[in-house]
Amino acid sequence: MNDKEQMRLENIAETSYEIFALLKQRYSPRIFKENLLNPTHINQLFEAVRWAPSSNNLQPWRFIYGEKGSNAYQSIYDCLSDFNQSWAGNAPLLILAIYKTNLENGDENFHAPYDLGLSLGNMAVQSQYLGIGLHHMAGLDWKKAEKEFNIPTGYHIASALAAGYYGGDTDQLPEDLKDQETSERKRMPLSEFAFKNEWSS
Ligand SMILES: Cc1cc2nc3c(=O)[nH]c(=O)nc-3n(C[C@H](O)[C@H](O)[C@H](O)COP(=O)(O)O)c2cc1C
C-alpha cells in the first residue's frame, strides 16, 4: 500500500497515555479515495449508530445521505459553507446528521444532541475499523438544508459529514488545506479538562 492509499501514519495521535488504536488513528480528512463506499460498509456505519446509548433509549438520531453523483449529494454540497465546499467535494459520501428535538409530550429533549453525538462516536469507531474517514461539518446552512430536504417540524439538522475511504492525493488540496491536513495535531492536556474532586482552572 502506498502513501496515497492509506491513512497518513504521521496523523496518528501522539497520546500521553495509551488508548485504543482506532481512536489514535482517527483524524478528519479533507481528501479521500475516489471510490464510492461499499453499501455494506454504509449499513455497518448506521448499524454502529443503532447500538449507541441514548437517553430513555429514544434514539433521536436521523440521517440523510447521498452518494457522489446523486441529487441528494449535490443538495447537501450546495448547503455547505464556502470553506467546506472547497474540499468536501472530494468525499464520495455526504451525510446530514439530524435529531428529533422534542419528547412525545412536547417538551424539549435536551439530551437529543448529546445522543446524536454519542451515535456519531459509535459511527467514528466503526468507520475507522473499515478504513473510512469522517469529517464533521458545522459549516452548513441548515435552514436551507431543512427546506431542501423537507425535514419535518420537530427535527433539526445539527451538522453535515463528509465520508470516504482514507487515502487520496493531498497534492489535490489547495496549499493552505494541504498544510492543515499534514500539520501536527494538537490537544489540550488532561489537566485542563479532567478535574479530580473539584473544579480546577
Ligand atoms: C461538531 C463539529 C463541527 C465541525 N465543523 C467543521 C467544519 O465546518 N469544517 C471543517 O473543515 N472541519 C470541521 N470540524 C472538524 C474539526 O475541525 C476537527 O475535528 C478538529 O480540528 C480536530 O481534528 P481531528 O478530527 O482531525 O482530530 C468539525 C468537527 C466537529 C466535531
CATH architecture label name:
3-Layer(aba) Sandwich
The span between the termini is 46 Å
Number of strands: 4
Let me know the CATH homologous superfamily. NADH Oxidase
What's the rounded overall pLDDT mean?
A: 95
Bound molecules: flavin mononucleotide
The major beta sheet can be summarized as:
4 strands, antiparallel
Q: Output the number of helix runs.
A: 7
- Approximately how much beta-strand content do the residues carry? 15-25%
- Structural class of the secondary structure composition? alpha+beta
Quaternary state of the chains: single chain
The topology string of helices and strands comes to HHEHHEHEHEH
What is the helix fraction of residues, given as a range? 25-40%
Rg calc: 18 Å
Give the neighbour order of strands across the main sheet.
1-2-4-3
Q: For the record, what CATH class applies?
A: Alpha Beta
Number of domains: 1
Characterize the overall form: globular
Low-pLDDT segments, ≥5 res: none
**CATH topology description:** NADH Oxidase
List keywords for this structure.
single chain; 201 residues; alpha+beta; NADH Oxidase; 4 strands; 33% helix; 16% strand; binds flavin mononucleotide
What does this structure look like?
It is a single chain. By secondary structure, the protein is of the alpha+beta class. The chain has one domain (28-168): NADH Oxidase, CATH 3.40.109. The protein contains 7 helices and 4 strands; from the N terminus they run ααβααβαβαβα. It has helices at 21-25, 39-50, 71-79, 82-88, 112-129, 142-148, 175-182; strands at residues 61-67, 93-100, 132-137, 155-165. The chain has a 4-stranded antiparallel β-sheet, with helices on both faces. Helix 2 (39-50) packs across helix 5. The protein is globular, with a radius of gyration of 18 Å. 29% of the residues are buried. The mean pLDDT is 95. Residues 27-28, 84, 136-139, 159, 185 line the site of flavin mononucleotide. Flavin mononucleotide binds next to strand 3.
